[in-house]
Amino acid sequence: MELLISIMLAVMTACGIYLMLRGRTFPVIVGLTLFTYAVNLFIFVMGRLTAGAPPIIGSGESYADPLPQALVLTAIVISFAMTAFVLVLALRARAELGNDHVDGAPVNEREDSRV
Amino acid sequence: MMHLIALPVLLPLVTGLLLLLLAGRKNFGLNRAISLVGAGLLVLVAALLFYTASSGVIQVYAMGDWAPPFGIVLVLDRLSALMVLVTSVLAFFSIWYAAGTMDHPAYNLNGLMHLLLLGINGAFLTGDLFNLFVCFEVLLLASYALLIQGDGPDRAKAALHYVVLNLAGSSLFLIAVATLYGITGTLNMADMAAKVAQLPEDRAPIVGTAALLFLVVFGLKAAVVPLYFWLPRAYSAASAPVAAMFAIMTKIGVYAIARMYTLIFGDQAGHLANLVQPWLWPLALTTLTLGFIGVLASRTLRMQVSYLVIISVGTLLAGLAIDTQASLSATFYYLAHSTWVCGALYLIVDLIRHQREDGSDEIKSGPALPQATTLGLLFFAGGLSVAGMPPLSGFIGKLLLLKAAGTGYEAIWLWSLVLLSGLAAITALSRSGSTFFWRTSGVATTGKAQAWPLAATIGLLATTLALALWGEPMIAYTDALAEQLLNPERYIQSVLRHTTVGG
Fold first, then answer.
1. pLDDT, tens digit, for every residue of B357-383?
2. 101-140 of B, contacting A, C-beta below 8 A
3. Complex-level ipTM
4. Record: contact A35-B141, CB cut-off 8 A
5. Is the pTM above the cut of 0.90?
6. Helix (H) or strand (E) holding B60
């Protein structure tokens, strides 16, 4: 199970970073979202993977660490709020700059305006 | 008295929420009054905490009376108290300035300013790593909203870069926190320091990775090379009180670096002792160099001040990299100075901009300003102080730092770069100053500055004089601060031996 989750995390992070490096705002936001998913899962996994164990010490042979679950909840809420904010900001930048490029204008248009 | 430590967090929270409720056009006068009173009270609380901390006792406050290392703690030592004081003084004058200038007001500005303060003070006081992350998010979210107050395509573009970069930074922060938790099993910074000191050798590399990830995150906040490109554009797009308040934002990164790499990864850290110091030195010098090139190359005054902020970050990091008591003491003296003076410069630039015919801060000659003498003197004083000329506080800070560099090869690098950056600052500021005040034709028809913003600017600038006049007690304080920072056992013991009220 560890191997499967590690591979999944790696693929998700790689996809997220690739998309974040794109030039338009929408792929960047999708990339950020994927990256935060990967991070949330990573926090959860850092409490070690246990199946079928309650998060209470002394209740059985093994127990699940409850703290990462609490942390991941906080992280999800924060990243959700941030994603909502960046979406609105991207829409506003699209409205004010007239296009959805992260630097304001695609390269060929910028060269045109310089001439 | 015991609950006083929680006030720098609670007071802005209550004020901020109240102000957001009163954010409409109808209540704007009341809104400004409450905001100013709230900021004034915060300065009083911070001064009281500063006085308490100067005795050297490390106070621990367990939130909800949950004993450390399980609950979240607030810790007040000399460093936290100084940072809270620097922040609240800067905030008071920024809010005062905002109260006088907002002719076409941004109704949420005051409320957001206090929420920003909540995050900043929380970050300085917390003794818990995950809580530090939460405070960073609180202050970042407030700063995003403050940055896009008002409109204009430049602001939207700068805000987009700033937000996306910081979101990526937050994710890295979480990865680092989770890795440390996974290995050490704790989030309390004092407990983590104790655990890292006893780390078995085979676990050291993975914890070291997390420690270096933290350097990337804090470096992004502090605007260290190569992560500083967002700063000049974002800061020069922000409105004046916001830009002045943002002068503390880079220092939060510097604070976090100082705290993290003396407490958890300092001399006591076993296999990982002092692992970032070799990285800090070249980063600091490169930041310094690129900062002064930027100052010389800027075309607008706000851009110039933004690069002065970057120079100050480079100087501060150099002090942290040398890592002796003398250098740390100089660093924190210089930190207070540079925060206040850079904040004051943003306000002065805004006053100048409003008296220009075209309302821009581009460095080119135009009609003379109606209040050229007053503004010229303010600009001159601010410029002298930030460039590090006697008799103001910048000179004392830089002198202490240069003395702390010793006589080795470090001294050669530091002396030449710090002095060159001072020269660059003088050259650039005198060029822009003479363009603005002397190379003029006719008189601009713009009105005079209002009394309140002018008073706020003078007040903030006067802090540099105060830092020079009361230099001796201040340096005694920062000396003791550096000593406390280099001996983290007392911090660790104070937190771990803390007994809760209920026993």
1. 887 888 888 888 888 899 999 999 999
2. 130, 134, 137
3. 0.91
4. no
5. yes
6. strand B59-62
